[in-house]
Amino acid sequence: MRLLAFFLLISYLSNAQELGYESRKREILSDIIRKEAFNKGETFITAKIDSANVEHLLKSILEKPYIFNFNNQNENLIITAEELEYFAKNLRKQYQDEWKESDFNNRKVIKQSDIQKCLDQDINRQVVMVPDPIYKSDQTIFVYLANLCCCGAYGSSGFFLYTKKDGVWKKSFKIIEEDY
Hints:
Elements: H1 2-36, E1 43-46, H2 51-62, E2 66-70, E3 76-80, H3 81-92, E4 108-110, H4 115-121, E5 126-129, E6 134-137, E7 140-149, E8 154-165, E9 168-179
Parallel strand pairs: 1-4, 1-5
Antiparallel strand pairs: 2-3, 5-7, 6-7, 7-8, 8-9
């Protein structure tokens, strides 16, 4: 009987932790996408991230021993090669992961092959690619983000750090950003 109670307690704690993680992930993604939704049109999410684009960006940063940058509040940031490898490894694990519409609040999920058609239907639409956040600390996450708009799927993509400030996840540092 005690053994059964012990297993039930462990199962309950495990499920509670998973639900807490899912709730926190949904909050983070909602904050990121809300900030990136820059137009009045509908914002769509791709089911998968663009692994070719991610690898292109990773190639640019993994060759460096560290990344140094600063933000508009004149705060400095140094990301070590070990941290970059950690981010790259965890990002690459997500290449086959797929989002479902239930993962987001009021956002439609589309396939990468449908991006062009989606954007061509309405000039005010945009498409965002974002994976699960990768934690650097409790208050800082690493995110790959691609933001596409207009006819032709133009936009930008990059790696960013987001920090929780005043209860909201906000972009705090750009690691690299390029035209998509």
